[in-house]
Design a protein that fits this description.
single chain; alpha/beta; Rossmann fold; GMP Synthetase, Chain A, domain 3; 2 domains; 7-stranded mixed sheet; globular; binds adenosine-5'-monophosphate-propyl ester
Length: about 625
């Protein structure tokens, strides 16, 4: 077996050879003439001249061998629906959807915005766009009308596909209402809107002449054979909007060939996804994790993918393990937040199901604390792989690569740079390389590997300015994350460079303080933000969710507990990291994808407005912060 180190080294030192071989993981209609064209840095063109298609590779290619194998299993614990589609059935549904779109005049290069809940039709729509060469943009359902309108105006879709409503924890989310509001706000609205009517929003309003019913159009297109549109490898496949430091979201644009190859390679070497196996990714298709690893990647390699609408604790906290057991899931991908939620539940649910089919659990999207990492690894008895990446990269940057070598896992570490990434930790001051155990900015020396964003949609200059100008000394891609490498070469992510706090001249990651507090046995979750302080510049402030609230039942107990947690920070990190206060709350403010709304907490703590809250999971959490700060 090749060692991880040799594998990675070759991916950097012999890019043409390495990625040329990887290209064999997918089908090409026309071979490429050049593996990489890097004549216009930092824009990398992969597989120049090659022609391929994502939908062909995800579906058609498998029809011969696995036409009757399940391709997509749809489970909604919100509506009770459970449906599965074989590759052949998926092929038929995607052709129907492609025919609907083509009938509305959508062709190569046209944009289609998919604003849909977690229903199978959302996957059909993505694959149908890919089939006909239309550029799709999935917008997460939680975005409010104004956010959706901004995306509509940037992408200028010809058609939008939506549904009456989605469901989350028993509550309806009214997609169609939000869509109508967004279209009213937009300057460049779509000509047509195709709607899947799930019958959840009984009072759904239909706009005559614009809104069309998916079921009716489908029934008129039952047996179409829509040929795939072959695309040059570097043509855009999709746009996924992501927020940065400015208010205007960036349209992360991805290509076709590099994207397909990178996902296929990640499935083989990193996720160890075998053809015929089953993958369960618990994300949403509106986020990059769901986009890449619910829809495209598992299908590219001939796996069965599970698409789930629901939360991890309904109808009970055993639901995910039940799904794993019943579908013999071999690869599971989830988020640290979800695991922390499960950690707080009755553990008998985990033992109730046979999860022996599982080979690995992958977690990403936010820092995974050591305690949670250790807990879930022990509970499942399989390797739990923390891996680190971004919407921009589309697939992992730092990870263990068990398909190449089963390197030992260190709790709290996303292991090593994935193949293809020439990753460096750079000193912020002069872009020189940090030593082991020294904090640096996680940067990637370009060209970025296949599968990473090719540019910002419609704005090449913004791509350069945002990601490649952090250091004047050299042109490198910055992740905006701090990282550190230990003496064994394992990396640790310490939080965003833009969330760094400075206490009396000492730079600290709020993440480091959280890690320290998290080691206190009664702390379930904690958020630390830097708050302006007249004397020291900034001071850390903590908001903790406790496992056992009886420990703070009286004011005296509460004060003692706060001191105890501060002492834990002194002991684990040093008094420099000690928060000025530890407030106790029962819920942290997070986005629906589980990201902590640090900036909002920080803003409230500094007496400012909480900012954009369109993606907040539960506004009540911010009320708790306000009350805690007011000493109530
Ligand atoms: O700060 C890092 C954090 O999430 C950011 C990227 O978020 P997003 O674009 O939503 O993509 C998520 C894809 C998994 C990163 O800049 N992040 C992501 N994974 C980890 C992480 N932080 C620590 N550990 C991780 N494993």
């Amino acid at each position: 077996m090749t060692s991880y180190k040799a594998f990675h080294a070759r991916s950097i030192e012999d890019r043409n050879g390495f990625w040329g071989e990887m290209a064999g993981l997918i089908d090409w209609n026309k071979p490429f003439s050049k593996v990489l064209d890097y004549s216009r840095p930092p824009f990398a063109k992969w597989y120049v001249g090659g022609e391929t298609n994502l939908c062909h590779n995800a579906i058609d290619r498998h029809l011969g061998v696995r036409g009757e194998q399940k391709a997509l299993v749809y489970i909604s614990t919100e509506t009770g629906e459970e449906t599965s589609y074989t590759y052949r059935q998926l092929h038929a549904e995607v052709n129907r959807c492609a025919a609907i779109l083509a009938g509305l005049g959508v062709g190569k290069g046209d944009r289609v915005i998919i604003y849909m809940p977690m229903i199978a039709e959302a996957a059909f729509a993505m694959l149908a766009c890919a089939r006909i060469g239309a550029i799709h943009s999935v917008v997460f359902g939680g975005f409010a009308a104004a956010s959706l309108a901004t995306r509509i105006d940037d992408a200028r879709p010809k058609v939008m596909i939506s549904a009456d409503a989605g469901m989350r924890a028993g509550r309806a989310i009214h997609y169609k209402q939000l869509l109508d509001e967004a279209i009213d706000l937009a300057k460049f609205p779509p000509q047509k809107v195709v709607l899947v009517n799930r019958g959840i929003d009984k009072g759904m309003q239909v706009v005559a002449g614009r809104d069309l019913d998916y079921a009716r159009l489908r029934s008129q297109n039952m047996n179409p054979q829509i040929p795939v549109t072959w695309l040059e490898s570097n043509e855009p496949s999709y746009i996924l909007y992501t927020s940065g430091t400015t208010g205007k979201p960036k349209g992360v644009q991805r290509d076709v060939g590099g994207h397909a190859v990178a996902l296929a390679a990640s499935m083989k070497y990193l996720y160890c996804g075998e053809p015929g196996g089953t993958m369960f990714t618990t994300s949403d298709i509106g986020w990059v994790v769901g986009h890449s690893y619910i829809v495209y990647a598992p299908l590219l390699v001939g796996m069965t993918t599970i698409m789930y609408e629901g939360v991890p604790i309904r109808p009970d906290p055993g639901i995910w393990w039940k799904i794993v057991s019943e579908n013999e899931v071999s690869v599971m991908f989830s988020s640290p937040t979800a695991i922390r939620v499960l950690k707080k539940q009755d553990q008998s649910y985990l033992r109730k199901y046979d999860v022996s089919s599982l080979k690995h659990l992958f977690l990403a999207g936010e820092p995974l604390d050591e305690t949670t990492h250790g807990w879930i690894a022990d509970a499942l008895g399989v390797p739990v792989i923390d891996h680190y990446w971004q919407t921009e990269t589309g697939w992992p940057i730092l990870t263990a690569v068990p398909g190449v070598e089963k390197t030992p896992i260190k709790l709290g570490s996303p292991s090593f740079p994935a193949f293809g990434y020439d990753l460096r930790l750079l000193r912020e001051t002069d872009a020189s390389e940090a030593e082991a155990e020294e904090k640096g900015v996680v940067a990637i020396v370009p060209p970025l590997p296949p599968g990473c964003m090719s540019t910002v949609w419609g704005d090449d200059q913004r791509f350069i300015d945002t990601y490649f100008t952090t250091f004047s000394a050299r042109m490198v891609y910055t992740t905006f994350d701090w990282g550190i490498r230990d003496k064994d070469g394992y990396y640790f992510i310490l939080g965003r460079t833009d969330d760094v706090i400075n206490v009396a001249g000492h730079r600290l990651g709020t993440r480091e303080i959280e890690e320290a507090i998290q080691t206190h046995t009664n702390v379930a979750e904690v958020a630390v933000v830097g708050v302006a302080d007249q004397l020291k510049g900034q001071m850390p402030l903590a908001f903790a969710v406790l496992k056992d609230v009886s420990k703070i039942a009286t004011p005296q107990l509460r004060a003692a507990h706060e001191q105890e947690i501060m002492a834990t920070v002194d002991a684990k990190l040093g008094a420099i990291g000690r928060p000025s206060r530890v407030h106790f709350i029962t819920l942290l403010p997070k986005t629906r994808s589980g990201k902590l709304l640090r900036r909002s907490i920080q803003a409230l703590a500094e007496g400012r407005d909480a900012g954009d809250l369109t993606t907040i999971e539960d506004p009540g959490a911010l009320e708790q912060i306000r009350a805690a700060l007011a000493g109530k």
